[in-house]
Amino acid sequence: MSNLNIKKGQDLNLSLEDVLLLRCACSNLDNQAQREIDFILDNDLDWEHILDMANRHRLMPLLYINLNAVSPFKVPVDVLKDLKTNFHHNARRNLMLTGELIKVMQLLEDNGIKAVSYKGPVLAYSAYGNVGYRQFGDVDILIDEKDALRVLRVMRQTDYELYHTVNIDDSYYLRFVTEHQFINKKNGVFIEIKWRFAGDFFTFPVDSSFLTAEAAKNNCNGFMVNTFSPENELLILAIHAGKHDWSGISWIMDITEYILKHDINWAETIKKSEKLGVKRILLINLYIARDLWELELPVDIINQINSDKAVENISNKIKNRIFQSKDLNIFGKMYSNLQKRDKIMYGIKDSINGLIKPGYYDFTDIPLPKYFFRFYHLLRPFLLLKRYGKNPV
What are 215's strand-pairing partners? Predict the structure, then answer.
């Protein structure tokens, strides 16, 4: 990867604190990157802002690793101490989550349930080479929809219980919920077992299950687990960032690090992105990664980025929103849906589904008796307004 320089940060109207965070977001620094970090540390920095942004964007481990490696004596003693404590706490928790993933994957396999793991520990190993370098709060596993009820029974027979307990019969519940969120009663670990990785609020023109059919094996702390092929994992990471409107720098950094560590078949990736209607979302991720960290991309990919004028416009808005720490409100999310999808009809469907399809929090916010379930569709827009408000841009 090439180098982000100080002038680049100025072109983006970033503070030195933001440039420092971007440089420290990388797992491998060359000599020039280390010189830039060392230069920035000679300035009077707002460490409260740096730590707030690092925590908000889940970059605390890498911030510590790189500051400690480059110029630890230039970092305030209390800041470096807190970062070190946070790093070791995160590493211990991630190892516990890794062990939990391995245990659950074995449990599902023993019960004849096909499962694929992605993000979380698997991504930490495959993109960063170290489970301690990422911040993640749970374990993500994908299954076939036909196994959803069987998984529920199997998990309940062990140490797990549903995090959201709602009195809704399975036939209705599974029409609207696309995952089970479990919590281990002994250690508090969250396990998300999904049968539609993007949920119901993200529309695909075709069945996306072909991604799962191309599962590969990946080493996760010495245990081989089912995961996605590099091309499919890249698409899922891009879709995940786009689904959440690129509100986290770490999600784009994950994509950058993953591409650097894997030999991506770009022609196949583009073809699949077009099939799923997410080519623009993929290109936005690549544009931002290239702009912030000068990720090297094939000429054909750069040409495709340049051929879609909306990519640059949307990407610039995303970057400004990220560094101004602004979140989209419900109306901003709907407008973003229309802009980021390959066809406006996909964005319209995403917005409609997001507005009317109930989910966990709707069921728990207003528990309704069974004969009133149909009213969740009408109540959801008001619940969303109450939950997310109107003011953030």
Answer: 228
- Count of Cβ atoms closer than 10 Å to residue 157 Cβ: 10
196 DSSP assignment: S
Answer for the pair 187, 96: CB distance below 8 angstroms, yes or no: yes
- Other beta carbons less than 10 A from residue 105's beta carbon: 22
Task: Give just the sign of the alpha carbon dihedral 302, 308, 311, 312.
Answer: positive
CA 317/CA 391 separation, integer angstroms: 17
140 strand-pairing partners: 118, 192
Mean pLDDT by 10 residues, the chain (393 residues): 47 86 93 94 96 96 97 97 97 94 94 92 93 92 91 90 70 76 91 87 85 79 87 95 93 96 96 96 97 94 95 94 84 89 93 83 78 80 74 45
Task: Compute φ and ψ for 327, nearest 5 degrees.
Answer: -110, 150
pTM over 0.70: yes
Domain boundaries, the chain: 6-75, 89-388
Measured at the alpha carbon of residue 170, what is the angle toward residues 164 and 172, in degrees to the nearest 5?
A: 95
Q: HSE (CB half, 13 Å, CA atoms) of 88?
A: 5
Q: Is the domain defined by 89-388 classed in CATH 3.40.47.10?
A: no
Question: What DSSP assignment string belongs to 330-367?
Answer: HHHHHHHHHHHSSSHHHHHHHHHHHHH---HHHHHHS-
How far apart (Å, rounded) are the C-alpha atoms in residues 348 and 359? 19
Contacts of 21 (CB under 8 A, 6+ apart): 50, 53, 54, 57, 59, 63, 249
What region does 229 belong to: left with phi over 0, alpha with psi -120 to 50, or beta?
Answer: beta
Report which of 197, 233, 199, 198 is spatially closest to residue 215, judged by C-alpha positions. 233
